[in-house]
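4.2 Preliminary Data

To establish feasibility before requesting continued support, the project team ran the inverse folding procedure on a target of 308 residues. The structure was first converted into the token representation described in Section 3, and no sequence information of any kind was made available to the design step. The complete token record follows.
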């Protein structure tokens, strides 16, 4: 039983159905389109004697609450309530909670047979595209207590935009390489910036680099064949990661303390930088967590052996 309580949405299936149906509406699907897509995606669930009724209960209740209950959905939900199989399951698997479950379904039956509320408006999510240009470099000063505790207070992380990716639902956010200053002084020009070291932000196991790998050939040779470049794989078969994405979902959440340094060349990438393709990057996190997480990554992967 994928439930942790007797209430309708104290169940994995019920929660998923509710959230996915509402998400389809937010994406502009009509009620009929959203319903049909949910039905298609949950074919296996619908045939399950335990989860099938839960699916119909959740979809019917969600549609009713939004003023969108379709007759066929209502019919299915009421039929499963009258069938009694869900209640019987609770009597066997969780008899202490069975009376509560019975009341939940009785209330649902009353609700579905009552007049629906007016159709509620579904707000469409607004997308944001970060205005940074490819090559733009921004400085972020490490000035919180955690930076002081870890011995990097006053230094700067430097981000250079090298690409873009999409963050839910349709925000276009920057993919960046990261560097760090050696002290509290910012680079004064492009040359000084390029002379700084790149920050390794993680390690990718070589087996994750390709969908299909010829196990009889060296991963280094396969990388060379694909890219024309030689990469250094560590003793555990891992490749350094240098790319992160910055979750800029609106202009107002971008830290005001960012300092724009200029638009510099991206023709000098980290030696082992590898674009894995698609929208994948090793790390991405919200600005409110940035300082601590990025400091931890820097100290974990770079403190003893900074590499360009």
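Position-by-position output of the design step:
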């Amino acid at each position: 039983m994928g439930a942790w309580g007797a209430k309708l949405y104290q169940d994995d299936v019920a929660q998923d159905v509710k959230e996915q149906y509402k998400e389809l509406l937010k994406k502009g699907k009509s009620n009929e389109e959203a319903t049909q897509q949910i039905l298609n995606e949950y074919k296996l669930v619908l045939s399950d004697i335990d989860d099938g009724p839960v699916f119909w209960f959740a979809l019917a209740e969600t549609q009713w609450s939004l003023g969108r209950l379709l007759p066929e959905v209502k019919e299915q939900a009421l039929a499963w309530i009258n069938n009694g199989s869900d209640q019987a399951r609770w009597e066997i698997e969780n008899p202490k909670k069975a009376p509560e479950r019975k009341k939940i379904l009785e209330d649902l039956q009353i609700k579905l047979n009552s007049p629906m509320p007016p159709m509620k408006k579904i707000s469409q999510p607004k997308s944001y595209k970060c205005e940074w240009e490819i090559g733009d470099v921004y400085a972020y000063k490490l000035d919180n207590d955690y930076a002081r505790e870890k011995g990097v207070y006053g230094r700067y992380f430097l981000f250079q935009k090298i690409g873009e990716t999409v963050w839910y639902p349709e925000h276009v956010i920057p993919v960046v390489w990261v560097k760090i200053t050696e002290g509290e002084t910012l680079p004064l020009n492009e040359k000084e910036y390029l002379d700084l070291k790149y920050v390794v932000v993680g390690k990718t196991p070589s087996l994750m680099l390709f969908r299909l790998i010829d196990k009889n050939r060296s991963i280094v040779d396969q990388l060379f064949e694909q890219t024309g470049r030689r990469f250094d794989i560590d003793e555990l078969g891992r490749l350094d990661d240098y790319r992160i994405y910055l979750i800029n979902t609106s202009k107002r959440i971008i830290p005001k303390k960012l300092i724009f340094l200029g638009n510099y060349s991206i023709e000098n990438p980290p030696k082992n930088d590898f674009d894995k393709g698609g929208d994948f990057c090793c790390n991405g996190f919200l600005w409110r967590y940035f300082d601590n997480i990025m400091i931890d990554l820097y100290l974990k992967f770079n403190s003893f052996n900074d590499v360009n």
